[in-house]
Design brief:
This protein is mostly helical and about 60 residues long.
């Protein structure tokens, strides 16, 4: 196997790994939302935090 092919496979594997790591909280949040009953205030706090994180990440990039 050539070095370029090995580097490409390593890059692809790393991308798949980090994509999985990033998607786990979404799946856990979905399961939590389906199994529990949250108040509207709690949902509003979570959504406000998420939107703040999104705006901050856009500002830094």
């Amino acid at each position: 196997m050539s070095n370029k092919l090995a580097a490409d496979l390593t890059s692809i594997a790393g991308s798949l790994f980090w994509g999985f790591v990033v998607s786990v909280p979404l799946l856990l949040g979905c399961l939590l939302a389906l199994t529990t009953k949250l108040s509207k205030k709690t949902i509003a706090v979570i959504m406000a935090f998420g939107s703040g994180v999104l705006v901050a990440s856009l500002a830094f990039s």
